[in-house]
Description:
The chain is mainly beta. The chain has strands spanning 2-10, 15-17, 24-31, 38-41, 51-53, 58-63, 69-73, 78-87.
Amino acid sequence: xxxxxxxxxxxxxxxxxxxxxxxxxxxxxxxxxxxxxxxxxxxxxxxxxxxxxxxxxxxxxxxxxxxxxxxxxxxxxxxxxxxxxxxx
Length: 88
């Protein structure tokens, strides 16, 4: 088992969170911004079909091997923190 964490800036362009893992993973994503929302989804996400993550909220997801989570801001830059626990 490995635990990794990081921070990244998300813009209105589609952004992958922490790449792909060949193992089953559990990931926590936190929107650090106090005013802006994020959108979450897969590689085909758009501003019209993303799942909202409100300011200062977090979400926990189980990610199958070879898959990734994508983010997009609704306006400008948004600071995001994440932590991934990988089952190897």
